[in-house]
Amino acid sequence: MNIRRATPTDAAAWDNYVAQHAEATPYHKFGWGIACEQAYQQSMHYLLAEDTNGNLIGVLPAIDFKRPLKAGHLVALPFCDTGFALADSQDIKTALLSHLNEQSDYRDLRQEPADTNTLSPGQKVILRLPLPDSSEALLSQFKSKLRSQIRKAEKNGLTMKMADNFTQHKALLGDFYDVYKQNMRQLASPVHSRRWFERILANYDDGARVCVVYTGDLAIGAGIVLINGQMAAIPWASTLSQHNRLAPNMLLYWSLLANVTDNGQRMFDFGRSSFGEGTYKFKTQWGAVPYALHWHDGATPELAAAVETGPPGTVRQLAETIWPRLPLGLTVSMGSAIRRYISL
């Protein structure tokens, strides 16, 4: 077995391996690393394992993550929830992981649904929904209350636009980013740069969906879904809170769920939530079930389960008070300048 750094010429073989691996997520695709380099100048450190015949038998995507005034360290993977190794066997996976050190961040995921009786309040989990053969079958399996909420958005006159290739993505990106940046200011969270989304969509192309929800001509909800094989994941979804009474989030999620179901995906990853809290309840109403995240954080390796680290409580509270009051343009320029150095 030979383990080496992947190069751009390995991209097609890498993506073919990832597309066929049962545990792979959309974040494992080669394009995620390319976007990290193109948008944020964070260098790829993608490792692959080959057998004696040169066949690909395992991959480990990682980024040599750099921050100002700090030594770089490997993160598998930044800007998303997971980034674990994929391999034909546990021995190959172990060999790939031996190339990480104690300072590396490694974001693993238990592959079986969690027993909710074993989860602690606030513990970070991924929520996933198995998808049937058609959107019609998916709609029929929802509870009547959920179906009525979807219809509420339609009765309120909301409409949506969907893009499924890069040419179409570019037409909706402005509206997506307008909703996203307003929502992130309200959440007191620094935004990704617009270039980050441009590079993600360019590298994923027809493996991405952009959906925007409108009231009249005004964009009030937006999301991006990424696809790999039979799995779809939604890393970014936003709505404008002043319009939430119109239920744009219901139309947004239903439109994306229906699209990927009819496209042949059989699992939908709703992303990370804290067990028992608001976003967790929103996702479980669709039928999603939790999978436990297990992260090794190089700064705090003793953590047994995934938690979100950040500034001390007082600093965070101050930011949450001040940030939403700042001019939108300032939050975008400041946020996009520092977001490249925040690995989550």
Strand percent estimate: 15-25%
User: How is the main sheet built?
Assistant: 11 strands, mixed
What is the CATH superfamily label of the largest domain? Gcn5-related N-acetyltransferase (GNAT)
Number of beta-strand segments: 15
Any low-confidence stretches, pLDDT <50, length ≥5? 306-310
Structural class based on helices, strands and sheet pairing: alpha+beta
Kindly describe this structure:
It comes from Alteromonas alba. Belongs to the FemABX family. With 344 residues, the protein is an alpha+beta fold. It folds into 2 domains: 107 residues, Aminopeptidase, CATH 3.40.630.30; 213 residues, Aminopeptidase (3-Layer(aba) Sandwich). Helices cover 36% and strands 25% of the residues. The chain is built from 11 helices and 15 strands. The strands form 2 sheets. An 11-stranded mixed beta sheet has the order 2-5-6-8-15-9-14-13-12-11-10, sandwiched between helices. The chain has a 4-stranded antiparallel beta sheet with strand order 1-3-4-7, with helices on both faces. Helix 2 packs antiparallel against helix 7. The longest helix has 21 residues. The radius of gyration is 20 Å and the shape is globular.
